[in-house]
Design a protein that fits this description.
Blueprint (H helix, E strand, L loop, with lengths): L1 E10 L4 E10 L6 E12 L1 H18 L4 E6 L2 H7 L11 H11 L4 E6 L6 H12 L7 H4 L19 E7 L4 H4 L13 H17 L5 E4 L3 H14 L3 E3 L16 H7 L1 H9 L11 H18 L4 E6 L1 H11 L6 H4 L7 E6 L5 E8 L7
Helix pairs in contact: 1-3, 7-8, 9-10, 11-12
Length: 365
């Protein structure tokens, strides 16, 4: 299947209130297959344009496209994605990497510059997003909305689900100091080790047996996973992509310290999951790699239970997707050390979130 993606983005102030728009078209008939648009908070024109490209590629993938012809009026994005221009802006590199990763999922992707006058549909969507106007996300399916069940919607189930028990690691020294703790390899405190044992007991109440226990490569998750593995006499498998978000040069600093030294960068980061801390990783990049792990686990252990021991950001992006939450979800959900969450899923896309950040097992610690 071949589609055309027209994408655009804009910012009123550069940086300023920003938004993107993308439309997926049937190349033969010009029919609109899907639309995407979203406000980005405060961002630059280039960030908004890359965001539109990413949204368009993602929508094309969801439609099952194998070939994509991208058309944009951003000379910079087209030339950089075509490999003819270098990406000198550090803030755009994570977005370009994400777009490239999505592009590799297709058989072929081409990039073409078009005049702004020929990109009116995407431009209009971007402006609606900046205005806060709701935008349809799937034009092709709206006509059948009354007849088609909502994908992943709740229906009575008789078959066994694939169950993911999500466990955040126990307390570390950086946890108690409320500092950004990403790739730094800090161990559990004595209290954190007690929390890990308590979490193992809570998991034991949920599942008599588990098919696998997987964790991030960092020490704090390995220690937490080991406590759970002892209960089931199972080995722990390390999944590198379950590692915490890379907070770059903010690692080991408090929110107040970051706010004082990088106020503009922090505001932009809080306003868009597509932006990364300086020298770090965006939440969208985290979601991309964690989603791949979850997909593999659900395929490999269909109908069974898997314990996933990870960090705040990876667990949040899994819960956000399960709950169909928006970008603001990541900053509104709290996950405590050794908190336990639970998600059931079925092959037809059905999802049921049964537990979020349960800490009842920590009451006596």
């Amino acid at each position: 299947m071949r589609v055309v993606v027209e994408a655009d983005g804009g910012s009123r102030g550069n940086p300023g209130p920003a938004g993107y728009g993308a439309v997926v078209l049937d190349p033969a008939t010009g029919a609109v297959l899907a639309e995407r648009a979203e406000s980005l908070g405060v961002a630059t024109n280039n960030v908004a344009e890359y965001s539109g490209l990413i949204a368009g590629l993602r929508a094309a993938g969801e439609l099952g496209a194998r070939q994509v012809d991208v058309r944009m009026d951003s000379k910079l994005v087209v030339e950089q994605m075509s490999g003819r221009w270098q990406i000198k802006n550090e803030g755009l590199r994570p977005l370009a990497r994400e777009a490239s990763a999505l592009a590799r999922g297709f058989d072929k992707v081409t990039y073409q510059w078009i005049p702004r006058a020929q990109n009116g549909r995407a431009d209009a969507l971007a402006n609606k997003a900046m205005d806060g106007t709701p935008v349809s996300t799937n034009a092709a399916s709206e006509a059948h909305a009354s007849e088609t069940p909502v994908p992943g919607g709740w229906v009575p189930r008789v078959e066994a689900p694939t169950r993911l028990i999500l466990v955040r690691h126990g307390e570390t020294a950086l946890t108690t100091e409320k500092k950004y703790s990403g790739r730094g390899d800090v161990p559990l405190t004595e209290r954190g080790q007690a929390q890990a044992r308590a979490a193992a007991g809570r998991v034991g109440l949920i599942a008599d047996d588990v098919a696998a226990i997987v964790c991030s490569p960092l020490t704090r998750t390995r220690q937490t996973a080991a406590a759970i593995a002892d209960r089931y006499a199972r080995r722990v498998t390390v999944e590198p992509d379950l590692i915490e978000c890379d907070f770059g040069i903010w690692e080991g600093l408090t929110f107040a310290e970051v706010s004082d030294r990088w106020p503009a960068e922090l505001t932009a980061w809080l306003g868009s999951t597509m932006l990364a801390p300086p020298e770090g990783e965006s939440f969208d990049e985290v979601a991309l790699r964690v989603r791949a792990v979850v997909t593999r686990l659900r395929e490999k252990y269909a109908g069974k239970t898997v314990v996933v021991v990870s960090h705040v950001s990876p667990i949040k992006v899994v819960l956000r997707e399960a709950l169909d939450g928006g970008p603001g979800f990541l900053h509104r959900m709290n996950l405590d050390p050794a908190g336990v969450s639970l998600i059931d899923s079925w092959p037809d896309g059905g999802v049921s979130v049964r537990l979020v950040n349960d800490t009842s097992h920590l009451a006596r610690i």
